[in-house]
Known about the structure:
Elements: H1 2-11, H2 16-28, H3 32-45, H4 53-69
Helix pairs in contact: 1-2, 2-3, 3-4
Amino acid sequence: ALKLMDVILEIEPENMRYLAERxxxxxxxxxxxxxxxxxxxxxxxxxxxxASVEILANYSDLTQNVRSEI
Length: 70
């Protein structure tokens, strides 16, 4: 699934839906820094007020986890 999302985003780098889905998948797979990078890219294009509750909650959780690892 991750490789498929990578291919889709190569073809359609502006596809924010797949970028958010890839960020969520990377988080589930334990790829926290990579997930955070995708979330940051996502939020550089999407206003947080229009993001889903799931995306906001996962991003918030991730930023706290990554910060605690530093």
